[in-house]
Write a structure and sequence with these properties.
This protein is mainly alpha-helical and about 80 residues long. It has a two-stranded antiparallel ribbon with strand order 1-2. The protein is globular. The mean pLDDT is about 90.
Length: about 80
């Protein structure tokens, strides 16, 4: 489901936003981009996991908001 619904675009978009490739970590150590086989969220694909939190139904705008929220949370 993720593949059919744009998971590669999500990976590419995240990589560009974070300035890293799969398997790499951002310079500040905050994010590592890892592609996994399946997280079992077929009905809400594409999705990503950050720590123990799932983020589903991803779009570019949703990814931007999630990253902004995560950056705000880590800077507090």
């Amino acid at each position: 489901s993720c593949s059919l619904l744009g998971s590669q675009h999500v990976m590419d978009y995240l990589g560009n936003k974070l300035g890293i490739k799969p398997g790499e970590t951002t310079a500040d150590g905050a994010f590592t981009l890892v592609e996994v086989e399946c997280l079992g969220s077929c009905g809400t694909a594409p999705m990503m996991q950050v720590d123990d939190q799932y983020y589903e139904n991803l779009t570019e705008d949703r990814i931007d908001q999630i990253l902004a929220d995560l950056n705000t949370a880590t800077s507090e």
